[in-house]
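quick q for whoever's on today - can somebody do inverse folding on this one?? i tried earlier but teh output was garbage lol. tokens:
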């Protein structure tokens, strides 16, 4: 299949329709009711009304930047003042302007300073390469991007644009109509037209039956055919009604009933009315909880019962029996369980029943299950009913399947009536989403709950008053003070629970005790719920971070969850994005689709484009989860309405790009020549991108319009990830490199990276800058996604093996020598070492707490700026790779001799330990946040994040220790890691296993300058000339060649390179462009000397001819990124230049 063009509109499948006259409602012939096109279910209607009101009430604030994306800001003050090195582009400048200024400079002041060179207009700064802007009312240091540039020692690139000429790409434009109707995606689901045709056939044949007794068999067959159309579903009443009709005519045929024609017609009409009534009820049952396009409306009033009665369930029939069930089991029974949150509050069973035959094979129960201990009035409004089918043979029971439903439609309406709910297989866990039935027709249960009109909605008690904590005795106060620091998810013993409830009114001054109080089952009984709601509003409010605990499945009450949502209102959009994956996951634990959390997320998505895109892809990542599929599809429809048409169009185009890349990745996996297949596929995507730009899934501010196909490659790892280099629509920007993977569940990587960003935020807020470097990652579907490729980094394996081979992991100097090579100047080198020490400390703490495994040296990267970062988080929470049953990750943290050498050589070992211990304690002091986040993710189905996560984090964060004890504990873990050779041995094993694995990407990097540069970053080269050669000693005599590099904008630069470096450039260019004819550079005579002047003069001529042949090539060859990386000025090149570069300083 060819990749989809990017301008293809990605939509839900259009509803099944035939001729328009067939969509007209059909009135039943024998009863008062009709079959009609289906409207939304109850909560879709509720959500639609709420969204329509929300769209009219919530509008983005009108500012000069309305319709633009503001660059993310920091919610804390950067610990130190610093100077920003800037490079500013503008149409009015003939070349970029470079200058430096304090980070505390107001953005508007800089704009005013540049105005004399810009002319008239209202100007703003845009981050070069991104469609995001800096507000003139802010400071440079307010922005995350500015501080990131400082931490990475990068220049800040900004473009000046006239605000009035900038297209408002994100101006909110909402459709008038909100359509939340979703179609079933079950295979061969019947449509309105199919059902209507069968009804018409039945009714016309029934009319004929009144005149012709011979039609009785056909009527019976038509009823069975209608049942077959509804996936072999039936009811006992319908089967009995058909039997009654058949028996009536049998009696007449055998002359047992001698009646006149008028009476016969009357009786037959009554029998047919009963059959059609049963048919209508079956169709209504089938359509009620399914996303089909038909429903039945009755004119008759529903029956009601006294809501104070106890809960009574009537189990009628188990049907759609699968062949394997009938073959494997003799009998079936049903276990009914009422669940609230994570607790089962009542459980009953039916008798065992043998399989019988009606229209189809079934197990006919017709049994009442009475929960005498539960009154409908006293049930929690979020209670759910689960029915589990057990199969029995030879005394052994097995779970066949299960289904579930909410017992209340909302806090004021009991969910009474008849139900026909499909079964989920045992492999689907009921905790992974809302209580619902399966639409795939793999077995179903017909049951009935009592009808009702209305139940009382619990309100907060008006007579509740708070009391002073100091009124408690000292021992009780100490008990609660200790409880304040405990994990709310930790079970409390009976005595503590009793004291919490007894002294509840004395605890309202301490917000951290509220989650403990709200975990008490006693708080939700019918007699206490009103007081609980009152205390909820009297209690001191929770911070947004503390409120995260209330989004776990332990707190199902909708009023409590509404309170938690209210606590999040103060979060800014950039902070909210950190918690968004967990809040989306928490939608699983909401009882109803129109929950307060769902509306909150949609409301914030309406006011922030970034949140809208992030929310879309998080929802898309859950769409394959069986229990969440319907809710997620509903949320996506709601999102595309509430966030506006421009966001909807953007995510459609992103989805099409993702589908095209996924298709290419699958072809690459099965290709004999993966590189060729990759380039052919990307060339087609590149062509469609040129016809219309697309924003990338992980950042709506990053708009791309081309793919640099020649810069793309396939990595030789297990899943064959693809490096895809995009060119931004901003011509001044450097290309943006990504990695696209199919075959790995990137949700775990996304989650771990998010947690690391949160750790870094907490460290910075506490004044601890560990120079953490992370990257963007978005899971775009099941086992696929896109990641940001970090620039100017090398794997630790490449560094360790570059000169010393597979044993390089045991050498102590590899990292130090590599850093010195990148930073020959002492000041730059010490800055890189400081970056290394700090980021290494941050990585050690983060990977230890999260239990990150599989830490071989291809999963640890070093940036040329000295920053360390980890990638590939496929093993976390103590899971590790093994070799022959032996755990490969043996050390507490990955600290190798070459890392320790850098730390100790520069006298930073005490600083390193202090940084680690301080960072460890900062995380521990915020342990509640991390425990809540992992508790929410417990049932996500993401990799290693399971029910054991909380216990692991308790141990890894040493929560039973004081700060001083924890610092000594972590220092001991560091010393264990330094003392062991296990990590180096693990690296050696990986080095041997990776022999011969090198990507085209690595082959195209220069050994003496692995950083990559391009036309955009350096300026276009128009001429290269070899001007001189110089003699050097190091320690032997050798010559260097001085090359004058003339660029599009003056001044020209001079660089010095050795002949060996020119040979490397020649070899890589010849390999990359085998079809091009470059002037050859020879290695010279075997016994030639590098100090031979005559040889050097000859080489000077050869180099000049080689450079001329390069510049004479076509555009993509002459300006290939390797040329710009080769001629990028290095610190030693200053010797060839008489003066330093001029820079404007303000």
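ok took a stab at it. sequence:
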């Amino acid at each position: 299949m060819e990749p989809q063009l990017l301008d293809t509109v990605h939509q839900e499948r259009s509803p099944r329709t035939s001729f328009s006259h067939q969509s007209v409602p059909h009135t039943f012939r024998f009863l008062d009711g009709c079959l009609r096109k289906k409207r939304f279910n109850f909560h879709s209607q509720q959500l639609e009304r709420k969204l329509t009101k929300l769209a009219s009430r919530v509008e983005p604030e009108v500012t000069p930047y309305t319709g633009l994306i503001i660059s993310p800001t920091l919610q804390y003050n950067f610990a130190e003042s610093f100077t920003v090195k800037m490079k500013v582009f503008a149409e009015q400048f003939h070349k970029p302007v470079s200058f430096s200024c304090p980070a505390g400079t107001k953005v508007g002041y800089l704009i005013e300073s540049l105005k004399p060179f810009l002319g008239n207009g209202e100007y703003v700064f845009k981050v070069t390469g991104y469609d995001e802007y800096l507000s003139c009312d802010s400071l440079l240091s307010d922005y995350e991007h500015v501080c990131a540039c400082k931490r990475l020692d990068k220049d800040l690139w900004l473009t000046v644009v006239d605000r009035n000429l900038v297209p408002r790409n994100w101006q909110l434009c909402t459709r008038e109509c909100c359509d939340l109707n979703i179609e079933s995606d079950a295979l061969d689901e019947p449509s309105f037209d199919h059902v209507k045709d069968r009804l018409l056939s039945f009714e016309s044949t029934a009319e004929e039956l009144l005149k012709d007794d011979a039609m009785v068999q056909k009527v019976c067959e038509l009823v069975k055919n209608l049942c077959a159309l509804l996936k072999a579903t039936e009811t006992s009443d319908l089967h009995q009604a058909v039997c009654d009709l058949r028996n009536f005519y049998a009696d007449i045929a055998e002359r047992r009933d001698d009646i006149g024609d008028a009476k016969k017609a009357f009786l037959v009409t009554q029998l047919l009315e009963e059959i059609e009534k049963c048919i209508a009820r079956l169709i209504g049952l089938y359509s009620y909880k399914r996303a089909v396009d038909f429903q039945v409306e009755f004119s008759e009033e529903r029956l009601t019962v006294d809501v104070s009665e106890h809960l009574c369930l009537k189990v009628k029939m188990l049907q759609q029996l699968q062949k394997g069930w009938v073959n494997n089991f003799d009998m079936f029974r049903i276990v009914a369980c009422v669940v609230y949150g994570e607790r089962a509050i009542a459980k009953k069973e039916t008798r065992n029943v043998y399989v019988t035959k009606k229209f189809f094979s079934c197990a006919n129960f017709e049994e009442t299950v009475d929960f005498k201990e539960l009154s409908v009035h006293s049930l929690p409004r979020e209670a759910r009913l689960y029915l589990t089918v057990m199969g029995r043979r030879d005394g052994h029971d097995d779970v066949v399947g299960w289904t579930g439903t909410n017992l209340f439609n909302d806090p004021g309406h009991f969910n009474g009536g008849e139900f026909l709910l499909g079964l989920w297989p045992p492999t689907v866990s009921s905790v992974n989403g809302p209580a619902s039935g399966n639409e795939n027709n793999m077995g179903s249960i017909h049951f009935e709950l009592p009808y009702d009109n209305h139940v009382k909605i619990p309100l907060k008690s008006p007579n509740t008053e708070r009391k002073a904590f100091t009124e408690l005795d000292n021992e009780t106060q100490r008990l609660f003070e200790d409880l304040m620091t405990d994990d709310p998810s930790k079970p409390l013993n009976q005595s503590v629970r009793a004291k919490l409830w007894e002294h509840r009114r004395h605890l309202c001054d301490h917000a951290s005790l509220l989650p403990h109080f709200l975990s008490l089952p006693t708080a939700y009984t019918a007699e206490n719920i009103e007081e609980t709601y009152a205390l909820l509003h009297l209690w001191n409010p929770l911070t947004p971070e503390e409120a995260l605990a209330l989004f776990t499945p332990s707190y199902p009450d909708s009023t409590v969850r509404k309170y938690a949502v209210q606590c999040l209102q103060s979060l800014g959009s950039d902070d909210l994005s950190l918690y968004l994956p967990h809040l989306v996951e928490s939608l699983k634990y909401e009882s109803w689709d129109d929950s307060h959390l769902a509306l909150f997320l949609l409301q914030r998505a309406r006011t922030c484009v970034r949140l809208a895109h992030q929310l879309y892809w998080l929802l898309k990542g859950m769409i394959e989860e069986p229990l969440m599929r319907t809710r997620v599809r509903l949320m996506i429809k709601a999102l595309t309405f509430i966030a506006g048409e421009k966001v909807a169009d953007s995510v459609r185009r992103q989805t099409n790009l993702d589908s095209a890349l996924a298709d290419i990745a699958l072809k690459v996996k099965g290709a004999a020549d993966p590189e060729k297949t990759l380039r052919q596929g990307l060339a087609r995507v590149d062509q469609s991108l040129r016809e219309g730009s697309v924003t990338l899934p992980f950042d709506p501010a990053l708009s791309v319009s081309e793919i640099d196909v020649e810069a793309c490659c396939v990595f030789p790892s297990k899943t064959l990830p693809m490096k895809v280099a995009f060119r931004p629509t901003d011509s001044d920007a450097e290309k943006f490199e990504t990695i696209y993977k199919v075959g790995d569940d990137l949700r775990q990587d996304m989650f771990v990276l998010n947690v690391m960003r949160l750790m870094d935020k907490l460290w910075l807020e506490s004044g601890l800058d560990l120079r953490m470097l992370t990257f963007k990652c978005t899971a775009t579907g099941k086992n696929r996604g896109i990641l940001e490729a970090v620039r100017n980094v090398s794997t630790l394996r490449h560094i360790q093996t570059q000169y010393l081979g597979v044993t390089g992991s045991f050498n102590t100097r590899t990292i130090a020598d590599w850093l010195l090579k990148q930073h020959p100047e002492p000041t730059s080198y010490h800055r890189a070492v400081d970056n290394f020490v700090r980021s290494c400390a941050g990585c050690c703490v983060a990977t230890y707490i999260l239990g990150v495994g599989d830490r071989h040296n291809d999963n640890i990267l070093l940036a040329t700026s000295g920053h360390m970062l980890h990638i590939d988080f496929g093993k976390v929470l103590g899971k590790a790779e093994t070799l022959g049953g032996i755990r490969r990750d043996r050390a507490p943290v990955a600290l190798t001799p070459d890392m320790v050498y850098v730390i100790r050589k520069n006298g930073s070992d005490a600083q390193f330990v202090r940084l680690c211990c301080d960072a460890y304690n900062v995380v521990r002091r915020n342990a509640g946040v991390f425990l809540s986040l992992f508790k929410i993710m417990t049932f996500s189905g993401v990799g290693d994040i399971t029910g054991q996560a909380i216990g692991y984090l308790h141990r890894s964060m040493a929560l039973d220790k004081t700060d001083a004890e924890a610092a000594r504990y972590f220092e001991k873990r560091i010393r264990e890691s330094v003392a062991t050779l296990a990590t180096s041995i693990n690296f050696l094993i990986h080095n041997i296993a990776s022999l011969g694995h090198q990507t085209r990407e690595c082959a195209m990097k220069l050994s003496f300058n692995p950083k990559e540069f391009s036309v955009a970053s350096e300026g276009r080269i128009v001429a290269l000339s070899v001007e001189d050669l110089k003699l050097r000693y190091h320690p032997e005599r050798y010559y260097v060649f001085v090359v004058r590099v003339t660029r599009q904008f003056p001044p020209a630069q001079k660089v010095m390179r050795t002949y060996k470096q020119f040979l490397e450039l020649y070899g890589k260019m010849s390999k990359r462009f085998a079809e091009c004819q470059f002037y050859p550079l020879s290695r010279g005579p075997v016994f030639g000397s590098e100090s031979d002047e005559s040889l050097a003069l000859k080489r000077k001529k050869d180099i000049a001819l080689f450079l001329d042949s390069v510049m004479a090539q076509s555009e993509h060859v002459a300006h290939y990124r390797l040329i710009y990386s080769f001629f990028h000025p290095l610190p030693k090149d200053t010797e060839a230049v008489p003066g330093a570069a001029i820079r404007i300083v303000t």
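fwiw The radius of gyration is 35 Å. also DSSP finds 36 helices and 37 strands in the chain. so keep that in mind when u check it
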